[in-house]
Amino acid sequence: MKVRIVGGGLAGCEAAYQLLKRGHSVCLYEMRPQVNTGAHRTDALAELVCSNSLKSDLADTSSGLLKAEMRLLDSLILQCAEVARVPAGGALAVDREKFSREVSARLSAFDDLEIRREEVREIDYEFPTIIATGPLTSPAMAEQIRGFAGESMSFCDAVAPIVSAESLDFNQVFEAARYDKGEADYLNCGMNKEQYLAFYEALVSAECVEDKLIDATFYENCMPIEVMAKRGVDAMRFGPLRPVGIRGRNGEKYYAVLQLRKENTAGDTYNLVGFQTNLKFGEQKRVFGLIPGLADAEYLRYGVMHRNTYINAPKVLDATFRVRDHSNIYVAGQLSGVEGYMESTMSGLIAGLSLSRRLAGKEALLPDEYTMIGALCRYVSNESIEWLQPMNSNFGLLPNITDVRDKKQRKAAYAERALQHMQLYLAQLEDRR
Fold first, then answer.
1. Over the range 363-376, which residues count as b (16 or more CB within 10 Å of their CB) and which as e?
2. Rounded mean pLDDT of the chain?
3. CA-CA distances (angstroms) from residue 307 to 37, 121, 216?
4. Are 149 and 312 in contact (CB under 8 A)?
5. C-alpha to C-alpha distance for 142 and 147, rounded to whole angstroms
6. Global pTM value
7. Angle between helices 62-72 and 341-359 (to 10 degrees)
8. d(CA 308, CA 299)
9. Which domains does the chain have, with CATH numbers?
10. Residue 118, exposed/middle/buried by CB under 10 A (0-12, 13-18, 19+)?
């Protein structure tokens, strides 16, 4: 019997890989290009809709720890990310197109994979299935999910603009690394106080897109820059425009700094970091053009906003992302209540690994709560949570370390302990094959 995976995003592709490598046959359904979403631009598998950054890769960060654990579990997505990597300081960022091609190529190398380009409009509870349709699930599938999940929540998500490198004014844009740490992989647009205030005033009065599907609830990590600005005149300076640690070519300090991150290996396109927006396209060009270096910027993609949905996982899923009332059905990706590229990928990895074990007649086996993966799995399935807030990896999910006072050393201790426990988990997987 083939395992059905609905959705060819990060979670769906990771789940497919984990099943295929363990000898299972998989049918992967992806509705694009027959049915599109409000945010995808291509029909590619594992398309990155928002940022091209998979966040920090440093070992003493929660995001870096999650990646380290996933590498130990042979994550397909991280393998492909390394091949498509672009310079981004301590972060893992990728060339989007190269990344998607690599995922497709590695999955297509399996003879037991079938890819169907069609919309799944009904859940067959008789077949082992992983639903990884993402936060932009089609209306028909959303209705099916409500059949077992009951109420769902929604929040607004946004993506940042991408500009052409050759259209930037390099007399004003400069390369620099914050605190001069690592390579200068980011371009920087520095503003003095007068320039910043002019930009701020234009931004808070700019015209946004009217969309009846968009409500006023925003997930903090994807908040539109204009919404952040309206929280206070200095809100952006403590967020994406933070100037601390960045100096100009001649050592000058700035009142605010916008950073631009490479979108591809060629370095001919850049993402405006933290500038998710719902401004009208003309307004984006006008208002962002007030930032030094962007006056004549060519926009290859304007920022857009869309609605994301996810289920109230603690009432529906167990820690392996299996639906409690339907043993054949798993839910992975952002739809399951995790937030972020790597967290979504992790849920697909665990769902695929867990379903594989169940089909082989083996017990479920998860990393413990001292690991970032184990902690996230337990968070989204914690029945004491009345209403789930989508969750990124963070050290606050882990059992406390109280005997290390220095903050940086304590983070390193969390990571060291977690990786030790992941090694124990790997040994258990090996023993209980």
1. eeebbbbbbbbbbb
2. 91
3. 11, 20, 11
4. yes
5. 9
6. 0.77
7. 30
8. 25
9. 3-158+307-431 (3.50.50.60), 162-303 (2.40.30.260)
10. exposed
